[in-house]
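Milestone 3.1: sequence recovery, worked example.
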């Protein structure tokens, strides 16, 4: 498979895993994201990620979808910078009330990868 793909097995879509991430996961805030993370299951082969945008802040679905598209693209292009030593479940919650440009989202995503690598080694 290509390096710059975002396959279905990389998406966090299991309701049980998502609930566990929100209940038991650690978190940190790095503008414009609140990042939730926890170590994945031992049989997991890839990092799994979830992107959310609040309906309270963005009433129109097209705006929420645009932000999620930008977040997915930033993850897809830079996921090789995320360490493969531990497989993580990661949730990105978009917090601002305005739509940020792609470059700003991408920059924050790369910074979050560095922080995840640092925090993941502590566990």
């Amino acid at each position: 498979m290509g390096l710059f793909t975002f396959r279905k097995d990389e998406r966090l879509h299991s309701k049980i895993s998502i609930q566990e991430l929100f209940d038991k996961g650690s978190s940190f805030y790095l503008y414009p994201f609140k990042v939730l993370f926890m170590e994945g299951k031992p049989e997991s082969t890839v990092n799994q990620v979830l992107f959310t945008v609040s309906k309270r802040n963005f009433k129109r679905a097209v705006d929420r979808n645009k932000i999620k598209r930008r977040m997915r693209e930033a993850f897809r292009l830079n996921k090789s910078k995320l360490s493969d030593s531990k497989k993580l479940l990661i949730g990105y919650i978009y917090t601002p009330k305005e739509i940020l440009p792609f470059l700003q989202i991408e920059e924050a995503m790369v910074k979050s990868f560095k922080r995840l690598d640092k925090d993941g080694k502590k566990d």
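The radius of gyration is 14 Å. Residues 3 and 47 are 14 Å apart (CA to CA).
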